[in-house]
Amino acid sequence: MISNIVSKFIFRRTIVLYRCKIRMESNFCYTNELSFINKMYSPVIPTYRVLNNEYIQKSPTVQEIEMDTNLLVKMYTTMISLNIIDTMLYECQRQGRISFYMTNFGEEAVQIGSAAALLSDDIVYAQYRESGILLWRGLNFSDLINQCYGNCKDKNKGRQMPVHYGSKEYKFVTLSSPLTTQLPQAVGAAYGLKQMQKNLCIVCYFGEGAASEGDAHAALNFAATLICPVIFICRNNQYAISTPIQQQYGGDGIAARGPAYGINTIRVDGNDIIAMYNATKFAREYTIQEKKPVLIEAMTYRIGHHSTSDNSTMYRSNQEINSHKNKIPIVLFKKYLEQFNLWDMNKEENFINFNKKTVLEAITIAEKHKIPSWEDLFTDVYYKMPNHISHPVVEETGWLV
Amino acid sequence: MILSKLYTRSTRRGSKFFRLSLPINGRPSCRNIHFTYYPDTRTVRTGEVKEMNMFQAINNALHLFLEKDKTSVFFGEDVEFGGVFRCSIGLKDRFGQSRVFNTPLCEQGIVGFGIGLANVGITAIAEIQFADYIFPAFDQLVNEAAKCRYRSGGQFDCGKLTVRAPCGAVGHGALYHSQSPEAYFAHTPGLRVVVPRGPVQAKGLLLSCIEEQDPCIFFEPKILYRTAIDTVSLDYYKLPLEKAEIVREGDAITLIGWGTQIHVLLETADLVQNELGASCEVIDLCSILPWDAETVCNSVKKTGRVIVSHEAPLSQGFGSEIAATIQEECFLSLEAPIGRVTGWDTPFPHVHEPFYLPDKWRCFESIKNTLEY
């Protein structure tokens, strides 16, 4: 009864505001009523999903979701591949073979679902938990492994910590550790694409914790006012290391901020790869056509530890983690594929065994490669090496060689 | 009652202004300019020339570059209408709003946005309204712009980014309209930091910065915008980065500075010549990072004595780097300790600006002591 009254009240209010707006044809309107604007005015943004977790039998058919079966299977196998490489590199770190690692457990759908909906020329600016995009785009296991080992085959020349991937070939801008710095950069790059009249967009990934940085505010505001074709994808996985979302923000997540900046926004079930695919595709079509930004907030859960330097049971219970395990994207998607006979246990076993072998081989080879030449410590600081860098280098050479 | 209060207030304030505009202790105004501008006599000018002040020379450089590179963009706070210092006048009308535009008021956004543009191959010229307000973008400049090429193994870079920012004392700028933050950035491998001393250098060095394939920070001493008037070539010309300029040759002592301080040092050099009969060699460093240690050390090896002078505070100012390098390279040539005449280790004050600045009298005193050592 009470909620009914409240909702009626909100409804009437909204209508009044709406009418005012229309009548005044401007960005503001007047009221005689002294009251605060609060959550009542903005109902919780619903989460878009396609694959229904609780009632899996009611899932739409492949025809209904208008997707190619090959694409669906490729999406699934990439998720599995990401899982395999994560498991094995995580173990590598535990054995002290690599210095650091960050897994993607639970967030495979956000990455691969969105990557599948993009063109391969769309440029990606990522945070660090987006390795799946590189796998989707065709990067080899060995390229990822070489980066983590920092050997002479690493594109970064062994300069960055593991997981800081980058690939010019696959339009994946090299990651850096400072959070959110990539957001305003993505907006600038998007403005550049518009300037060059290319029918492409920039896709920029970040976590919900990173969204608290000042750069996130800068980016959303710049994207809206300078009208840039950029898709922001926020991975809301409930935690920024140990900080739960309740300590990260007081509003309705990240999605609620989008409209405040004047950005078209959608909240998606990040564990539902089809929903993620559809939302990104929808966003991309809009962005390319209108050259305007879109914000996607993908709701998910970080199943793994934050990194290999973190023990997440210090701040969350095993029970909590386990309660999310039946909702994880791989399980959800596998049930769906099995339902339509697109996948089975046999295929899964073969795929996993084959890929585990491939990853192991790649690791063995990566370990045998030497680190890059000592000269690579000094190159690329500037386009040409200035005197003050080359001078000591020349002096030291006698000692180093 | 309110009216009468307002009245008294305004008259009181008015009388205060009136008093200030009258000579106090022989000073005509509290807004003194602490130097005399020395026009450039060494740079070769080709083609058609024009009398310009520094903001006009910068404006001319921007016009020439935006004309040359058709995809380049210029942006910052309030640049569309010509900029708060008139540096971007006429740009928007000529090149359109898609290439010359205002951004929201957010420095970290401006620099981040510029890095992104440069990432995809667009020449980005960003303006930070005052160098004092560059610090919100410190992270983007130091962690991102400077390290972009290095961390990606040369796969990505933002070499096409140039950040312009007015810097230095202006007579009454106090804490947040007077700073010289070059030393903060001089500690960052990957950046280029450049400061011109007049219109001729501003145009040539700015065009070099824009074309250089590394991210550059171009600090423009704002007091020179209108006071520095010189004959500037209308041609598209560049002056070399990483190269110091010997502005005046001498044999008794080397004076090193940059920006406005060069004019203070030139005036001091005249004073030293007249009072002490010693000739000073004045070097404009031009590029703070990477800097031209060779020219500096060659000069010190010749004179044996040296003074470094800058407006920024003493401790960890760029003068320390120069002094340390000189003592390492010229130990056997030095005949006196290296002198540093700089701003005090305080925030930049408002009414005490004349006491804060390393003016010609402080420079003279230090030179005299060094020569007598």
UniProtKB/TrEMBL annotation, chain A:
What UniProt keywords apply to this chain's record, in alphabetical order?
Metal-binding, Mitochondrion, Oxidoreductase, Potassium, Thiamine pyrophosphate, Transit peptide
Q: Where in the cell is it found?
A: Mitochondrion matrix
The record's section on InterPro entries has:
Alpha-ketoacid_DH_E1_comp, DH_E1, THDP-binding
| GO biological processes | branched-chain amino acid catabolic process
Q: Name its co-factor(s).
A: thiamine diphosphate
Q: Which SUPFAM superfamilies match?
A: Thiamin diphosphate-binding fold (THDP-binding)
Parts of the chain that traverse the membrane: none
Q: What is its EC number?
A: 1.2.4.4
Q: Provide the Gene Ontology terms for cellular component.
A: mitochondrial matrix
Gene Ontology molecular functions: branched-chain 2-oxo acid dehydrogenase activity; metal ion binding
What are the Dehydrogenase E1 component domain coordinates in residue numbering? 77-373
Q: Does the keyword Metal-binding apply?
A: yes
Coiled coil, from the record: none
The reaction(s) catalysed by this protein are: N(6)-[(R)-lipoyl]-L-lysyl-[protein] + 3-methyl-2-oxobutanoate + H(+) = N(6)-[(R)-S(8)-2-methylpropanoyldihydrolipoyl]-L-lysyl-[protein] + CO2
Known function: The branched-chain alpha-keto dehydrogenase complex catalyzes the overall conversion of alpha-keto acids to acyl-CoA and CO(2). It contains multiple copies of three enzymatic components: branched-chain alpha-keto acid decarboxylase (E1), lipoamide acyltransferase (E2) and lipoamide dehydrogenase (E3).
- Family the UniProt entry places it in: Belongs to the BCKDHA family.
Could you tell me what this protein is called? Answer: 2-oxoisovalerate dehydrogenase subunit alpha
Give the organism the record lists.
Ceratosolen solmsi marchali
Give me the gene this protein comes from. LOC105361133
UniProtKB/TrEMBL annotation, chain B:
SUPFAM superfamilies given for it?
A: Thiamin diphosphate-binding fold (THDP-binding) (SSF52518), TK C-terminal domain-like (SSF52922)
Q: Subunit structure of this entry? A: Heterotetramer of 2 alpha/BCKDHA and 2 beta chains/BCKDHB that forms the branched-chain alpha-keto acid decarboxylase (E1) component of the BCKD complex. The branched-chain alpha-ketoacid dehydrogenase is a large complex composed of three major building blocks E1, E2 and E3. It is organized around E2, a 24-meric cubic core composed of DBT, to which are associated 6 to 12 copies of E1, and approximately 6 copies of the dehydrogenase E3, a DLD dimer.
Q: Which domain of life is it from?
A: Eukaryota
Question: What organism does this protein naturally occur in?
Answer: Ceratosolen solmsi marchali
The listed locations are:
Mitochondrion matrix
* Annotated gene: LOC105362793
Q: What does the UniProt function comment say about this protein?
A: Together with BCKDHA forms the heterotetrameric E1 subunit of the mitochondrial branched-chain alpha-ketoacid dehydrogenase (BCKD) complex. The BCKD complex catalyzes the multi-step oxidative decarboxylation of alpha-ketoacids derived from the branched-chain amino-acids valine, leucine and isoleucine producing CO2 and acyl-CoA which is subsequently utilized to produce energy. The E1 subunit catalyzes the first step with the decarboxylation of the alpha-ketoacid forming an enzyme-product intermediate.
Q: Where is the Transketolase-like pyrimidine-binding domain?
A: 52-227
> What cellular component GO annotations does this protein have?
mitochondrial matrix
Q: Per its record, how is this protein called by name?
A: 2-oxoisovalerate dehydrogenase subunit beta, mitochondrial
Which catalytic reaction applies to this protein? N(6)-[(R)-lipoyl]-L-lysyl-[protein] + 3-methyl-2-oxobutanoate + H(+) = N(6)-[(R)-S(8)-2-methylpropanoyldihydrolipoyl]-L-lysyl-[protein] + CO2
* Single GO BP term: branched-chain amino acid catabolic process
| Keywords on record | Mitochondrion, Oxidoreductase, Transit peptide
The record ties this protein, via InterPro entries, to:
THDP-binding, Transketo_C/PFOR_II, Transketolase-like_Pyr-bd, Transketolase_C
| GO molecular function terms noted in the UniProt entry | branched-chain 2-oxo acid dehydrogenase activity
Q: Which cofactor does it need?
A: thiamine diphosphate
EC numbers for this chain: 1.2.4.4
